Amino acid sequence: MSKRNRDWGNTLQGRFLRSMRFGCEPLDSLLVQRLDASRDESAVRALEAEDTLRELQQNERVAMARDKQVDFAQDVLEWSQSKGRKVIGRLYALLSIVICVTVIVLLMETVMNMPAFGSPAAPANNEVAARYIEKGMEETGAVNIVAGMILDYRAFDTLGESTVLYIAACAVLILLRIDRQKDGTPTQELIAEEADDRAFEPENDRILQGSAKVLTPIVLLLGIYVILNGHLSPGGGFSGGAIVGAGLILYLNAFGFARASRFFTYKTFTTVSLFSLSFYALAKTYSFYCGANGIPSGIPLGTPGAILSSGLILPLNICVGMVVACTMYVFFCLFRKGGL
Amino acid sequence: MDVFKLILLVILVICALAVSLTRNLLSSIIVYMAYSLVMSVIWMLLESPDLAITEAAVGAGVTTILFFITLKKIHAIKGESTDEQAQ
Lengths: 340, 87
Hints:
heterodimer, B: mainly alpha, 0% strand, flat
């Protein structure tokens, strides 16, 4: 209190701290103004006395409120153990039936409105396939028709698939990650997991390390090749990403977590995933917007067959590949010992 | 080529049955890996190399490894030390 000077009293932190302590902001700022106007020792002392009195009253009120809350909690507990259990059970049953019926009705409605399965009149069986094959290369610029389909014509599907993969990674992260303590030291559980992990791990296996030294660069190169040539040759983001992830897993198994964590941490995972997914979403939003409104998107398609061609497909392939590779690697780490 | 395809399909069916009928979890995972490998060759023959690459990398590679780790976690793989103790 004695350190209260004019500047501190008016800073955001000072006001916040005081409002936390006394919980009445307008009066308090008035007090501060008065204090600032006349920096009199006696006034300060009177104010301090006032403050302590107010604090006491506040404490009393808090205690009363807490008692009331405890009573209420006990009432709720008793109710839930006696009559409430039946009521809540019935509510759950009713809600689950309602949700089930709604979903069934919605799905049935959708199925009823679809064209008959295999009917030659359905657009999926005559127009779409022919259009993809005839105009695919011209419209998307991709020699590999599959890449043109999944990253251009049906990019919305692929965006959903990437999101599903990312959500799966998050769910695995929530379920399997073992947190460190707040100060960064490992918990007992983590130490036990690491000891358990090491019991099965071969320590400096010569055969594994020798073959990993030869294989890892080749596997990673193949993965990068498959990603970068996704629009020209078979493959693409997902397959190439899976190959890169498998190469990283091989490296990790041969050389251990200590060496792998030099280039791959949680930060790498979050940065790469965030960057890739947001780039994907932004790029596709732009091209959807342009396509839906008939505006030329201004992205050159290039000559089909060249490595820098087919507009957005190459960067999108790279993004999908990075997300998939990171997700595979993180899955492996989390399954093994609950952390990177 | 038709004979080769038939052989592959028969192996595929045998693998699929073996996965569900094997008692030992470890062997059933290895059979599942073989199933994925055969499946990727079949995708290749069906002229969809995209799927073949993905099946080989994900089905035969990453999924199998994840299954192995899970088995290790739930102590379903009997290590050498427990075998020695049993003897």
